[in-house]
Amino acid sequence: MSILKYTLIRLALIAAFAGLFSLLGMRSYLLAFAAILCGALAGFIFFPRQGQEAAGEVERLATRRPKATSSTDEDVEDEIVEGDPEA
Predict the structure, then answer these.
(1) Alpha helical stretches, state H, 1-87
(2) More reliable by pLDDT, 23 or 76
(3) What single-letter DSSP state applies at residue 86?
(4) pTM over 0.70
């Protein structure tokens, strides 16, 4: 849920900067580039806690291991180096 929350904050910041820069007369690729850059920087500066929560959730999702296998990385490396003893 924190990933969605932080994504929505960043999108709102980008949209706000795009609107502001559009009123100031920016157009085309410069408008998009400036809005994305300023929105990302504002999110990084003003919402660090939400960013850390989202990063922690991504890390938890990425490091979750499937429960079907019980072998560790060391076991797999040993099998590769020493050869499969059951083969």
Answers:
(1) 2-23, 28-46, 48-63, 73-82
(2) 23
(3) T
(4) no
